Amino acid sequence: MPIPGVYQKVAEGQQSQRKTGTVENPKKYKGQDFNNLRELCLNRRQLFEDDVFPASLYSIGEDLLSQDKLLSIKWKRPTEINKDPRFLVDGASIFDIMQGEIGDCWVLSAVGALTLHRRFLENVVPKDQEFTHKYAGIFHFRFWQYGEWVDVVVDDRLPFLNGRYLSVQPRSNNEFWPSLLEKAYAKLRGSYQNLHWGFISEALVDFTGGVQLDFNLSKPPPDLRDIVLAAARSGSLMGCTTPGEFHTGNMELQNGLVQGHAYTVTDGLQIEYNNKIEDIVRVWNPWGQGEWNGRWSDRSPQWDRVQPEIRRRLNVQRNDGEFWMSCPDFMQNFSQLNICNHMPTYLDFEDPQHVWECTPYYNQWVRGSTAGGCNTTEDVWKNPQYVITIPETQRRGYNVTVALMQSLINERKYNPRWLPIGFAFCKVYLSGTKNGVQQKFSRQQATDIKTTNLERAREVTKSFVAPPGTYVILPFTQNKGQESEFLLRIFIKTSQIAE
């Protein structure tokens, strides 16, 4: 009997085999089909009005603004805002984006990273839409949700407060892809209010379907520099945050950075400076202005000791929100770094010759059966178990990444937001098992047990340097009997040589 749930599931312990929910054939969010709705509107010679996400306070959220401001919101279509509206002008760029009234820097930092990598951007922003061809007031975007791509339809009525964009403001007066993309994401999340603060990690995964790792910069791993440089080389998306809470205000510091604010990392390089090698990081502010003013900033004297051709290429002096920093300054002034890619190729700085493979598994914690919790060591071993084998050929560097995501239903079911979840990664004395086959192991069969901290987060991810052998992965909740569905993705570096 299939496991119940809002998404189609497979039997316990089996991996997903999907024909829908792909980039090429995404699920229709709320059953709305873009092509059918557009054709219907064109035939009726009317502009689309989305009754699922209407131009009303329901879509804004009752707690986003004061009552008088909420009542002052006006909705306008791009054709009412500009005489020559365009979806895209000369392609999508990070400099198309300027944050509006909503505190959604975490979303816009991820969107900014998205614009730097066409292979990701084209998955999210379909090409079949414009104001000059088959315009019917309807647009659509794709997002990754709990293992599936979904296609989200919106009408193009945008909220304005006192004549200004409530949402993201496009830098060009007639380019509307940023505002429409943000509206589609607000619809997916439930309201604009639900974009008011959040986590870069979630947005990066929603825009890519990839695997992301976050790094605490107050306690960075010793190989973080190598990871950042590998991430830049491999075309990974990167974001970062400054210390402070998102929802306590955005105070600009004397060094030009904003407290409790999310940024995009747009590049990482090593350059020759003062007869030595200097590591520098390029960062972008979603406000579209406001920059770091310390070492390696636009007008800092460090650029005078760099080769002229490198200085001309890198030292672009304009107040567009983008700036360079030294790695030590970056580590000192930012609290967290997030890196995301389809596969964890940003960990390949030691052994870049091999490729990664991902195997997803859907399952659930069931009270009295598989919901063991983690209160005791014995309880941990009562949770679902997944077996992997690391071959003798994989002896260098990171070779396993595990990502555990709980059901998205939990976001509104639990307070605050999510169940605390985690997993154990244990080496066991057994050989000859196939990856993913569920067998029951006991604590006595395990050595070298590594357990993640419990996190009240949508997804918990950790990477390992695993010597050859057999391992068991045990996902758990905090307490015995806590029920939820979950998606476990296991990324393993294979013996296959990358081309």
UniProtKB/TrEMBL annotation:
MF term (GO), any: calcium-dependent cysteine-type endopeptidase activity
GO biological-process terms attached to the record: proteolysis
Active-site residues from the entry: 105, 261, 285
Name used for this protein in its record: Calpain catalytic domain-containing protein
Organism the protein comes from: Pyxicephalus adspersus (African bullfrog)
Calpain catalytic domain span: 47-343
GO cellular component: cytoplasm
InterPro entries recorded: Calpain_cysteine_protease, Calpain_domain_III, Calpain_III, Calpain_III_sf, Papain-like_cys_pep_sf, Pept_cys_AS, Peptidase_C2_calpain_cat
Family note: Belongs to the peptidase C2 family.
Keywords: Hydrolase, Protease, Thiol protease
